[in-house]
Design goal:
Helix content: 55-70%
Strand order of the largest sheet: 1-2-3-5-4
Strand content: 5-15%
Order of helices and strands: HHHHHHHHHHHEHEEHEEH
Number of strands: 5
Oligomer: single chain
């Protein structure tokens, strides 16, 4: 039986699926036909090629009628098969042009060059451009859609120059000639006085053909440039969306890292502080069990109270894992914020503590009060673990108009401690102070022992000091 994996969130429900990445098609939008063409570009290529081939077939009929009319007017030799030659070249040009347009998306510049050469050959062979002018315009559309303005206008200039020169010199039948000579062969019977080898050159008709060619090529470039601009705009929007998504993910990662650091700091404070006191109390109770059972019993009771306090703090920390409150969330505040109680606990564990300023009125700012309690507890825990048997431990808490200062000084241990430690306690003290804009200095004293000095800024506006 297949196994189904379900990812659960912190609240216990299924995790929401990740948001789908934004695509160019979604940004572009458009009609169903536009979306179909964007999803399957070959549909548009086949459609354009088919339209050009159809226009070529219809145009070949008109070209045949125009050539026959011109011959009836004496513009071609009487016995020449002008209509057949012009129609054949027209149809071949339409077929080859439509076939080349199928490749315009893959190689727009090469297709444009090939169509230009084919148009020149058509003019040289029969004096007709046919639908190749429209085919070249479609190829220039692809050039403008795929390349920048410089490449597009260079291709446009080369094509226009080549076809204008060739058309001006060799074109015999264009759109104007088709309109003028169509049906002349089926009119009244009239015999021209002479038959010309080819139609006479007409600057007016050539100019009209050139202007029509310029209009077709400019239309292709304009539409292609607009399509390129729309595509680039859609790509820019997609890239901006992805950048915002990356920034969002990075912010979420930083938030998770900050939350993990906060949880680790709280767990260290709760576990290390209380367990160190409990171990010291338990050792003292064991040592005094035979000679001072009353003191041993008091130490055991203190172990129980410390354990309950630690358990309550642990529950508060675990209860705040799903919140964004940070250090000033009430659920992560320690159960004991009375500094005298904190110091008394360490004194019960056998530490010779001398304290001053424990009754100092702390600011109402929860972050400052929590930081003072945690830093004091961490400093005394370090003395208990790393400087056992210290002859003296001095604690001082001072409040100034702009800061609260906490100082813990010991005279140095007389017995071996618990080892070098992990350093997490000092890092946690410095992080707490830094979050409030303060600092912690810790290090050995010149005369022996260790000193911790913390400065925690506060203001009346933030803390509502008393």
């Amino acid at each position: 039986m297949p196994t189904r994996r379900v990812t659960l969130t912190r609240t216990g429900g299924p995790a929401a699926p990740p948001a789908a990445a934004l695509t160019e098609a979604q940004v572009s939008g458009g009609s169903p036909v536009a979306r179909l063409v964007q999803a399957r570009p070959w549909v548009m290529d086949v459609t354009v090629a088919g339209v050009m081939l159809l226009v070529g077939l219809v145009g070949a009929v008109f070209a045949w009628e125009a050539a026959a009319g011109a011959q009836a007017l004496g513009l071609y030799p009487r016995d020449a098969d002008v209509s057949g030659r012009i129609t054949a070249v027209w149809l071949v040009g339409a077929a080859l042009g439509a076939g080349l347009l199928l490749l315009r998306r893959a190689a727009p510049l090469a297709v444009t060059a090939a169509l230009t050469v084919l148009a020149v050959l058509s003019l040289l062979a029969a004096g007709v451009l046919g639908v190749l002018g429209a085919c070249v315009a479609c190829a220039l559309y692809s050039v403008a859609a795929a390349h920048g303005a410089r490449t597009t206008w260079l291709a446009f200039g080369g094509v226009l120059t080549t076809l204008t020169v060739t058309l001006w010199r060799w074109q015999d039948i264009g759109l104007i000639e088709v309109i003028a000579w169509f049906g002349a062969a089926t009119g009244t019977s009239w015999e021209p006085a002479q038959y010309l080898p080819e139609p006479l050159f007409s600057p007016g008709r050539r100019t009209g053909s050139v202007l029509l060619l310029v209009a077709l090529l400019l239309l292709g470039v304009a539409v292609g440039s607009a399509a390129r601009a729309r595509r680039l705009h859609a790509l820019d929007l997609v890239e901006r969306y992805r950048a915002l998504a990356r920034e969002r993910d990075q912010s979420a990662a930083l938030a998770r890292a900050a939350e993990r650091a906060h949880i680790a700091r709280e767990m260290h404070d709760v576990v290390a502080h209380n367990l160190s006191v409990m171990v010291a109390l338990a050792d003292g109770a064991d040592a005094a069990f035979e000679r001072a059972p009353d003191r041993s019993r008091d130490a055991v009771r203190q172990v129980a109270r410390t354990g309950r306090s630690a358990l309550a703090d642990m529950q508060r920390v675990l209860g705040a894992l799903g919140t964004d409150g940070g250090d000033d969330d009430p659920r992560v505040a320690p159960t004991e914020v009375d500094l005298a109680t904190v110091v008394e606990r360490f004194g019960t564990a056998g530490m010779p503590v001398t304290a001053s300023g424990l009754d100092t009125a702390l600011p109402d700012d929860t972050s400052v009060r929590l930081a003072v309690t945690r830093i004091l507890g961490e400093a005394l825990t370090n003395v208990l673990r790393h400087a056992p048997g210290a002859p003296s431990v001095e604690v001082a808490v001072r409040r100034t108009p702009t800061a609260v200062e906490v100082e813990v000084v010991d005279g140095g241990g007389t017995r071996a401690g618990d080892g070098p430690g992990t350093g997490r306690g000092l890092v946690g003290m410095r992080e707490r102070a830094a979050l409030l804009g303060g600092h912690v200095t810790a290090g050995p004293r010149a005369g022996g022992g260790w000193q911790v000095h913390a400065v925690l800024p506060w203001s009346h506006d933030e803390g509502g000091g008393r």
